[in-house]
Amino acid sequence: MKKQNFIAIMAPLAEFDQLQSGVPASLTIAQAALESAWGTSELAVKANNLFGIKGQGTAGSMRLQTTEYVRGVAGRVIADFRAYNSWAESVADHSSLLVNGVSWDRDKYAGALRTDGRSPPPRSAPPVMPRTRSMQIS
């Protein structure tokens, strides 16, 4: 998929989601592009999962091999990734995680989205933020 086509599909989804969740559309688009290789990853194509979120989604799950880091050491594991019926569901779930955290840690992403104009601490800053500038998404 061409980058322009990906953005054309994602923009209305991300803009609608921003109205619902408050998560900036530019962040959603940039992170989806990064995580899904512009919508071309196996997970995005077969499971509508744009963000690599693990677990059980609205359409079940998809089992894939992935790299996990344990105490700084990379290892290959098989993991279940959420499957969705649409990219819109993937976007909404991603925003829900950013806003509400995960079931076992509601503060998991606390500070990742700031509304006071300041950046979050470097240790928690999403690596996608510089990408929004390089992609000229605002």
Structure description:
By secondary structure, this protein is an alpha+beta fold. The chain is built from 5 helices and 2 strands; from the N terminus they run H-H-H-E-E-H-H. The chain has helices at 3-21, 25-36, 42-47, 87-100, 129-134; strands at 61-70, 73-82. The protein has a two-stranded antiparallel ribbon with strand order 1-2. Strand 1 and strand 2 form a beta hairpin. Helix 1 crosses helix 2 and helix 1 crosses helix 4. The chain is globular. The two termini are 22 Å apart.
Helix/strand class: alpha+beta
Assembly of the depicted chains:
single chain
Query: What's the overall average pLDDT, rounded?
Result: 85
**Strand numbers in spatial order across the main sheet:** 1-2
Query: Percent of residues in beta strands?
Result: 5-15%
Largest sheet: 2 strands, antiparallel
**Helical proportion?**
40-55%
Q: How many strand elements? A: 2
In whole angstroms, the N-to-C terminal distance is 22 Å
* Low-pLDDT regions: 117-126
Order of helices and strands: HHHEEHH
Q: Count of helical segments? A: 5
Rg of Cα set: 15 Å
Shape: globular
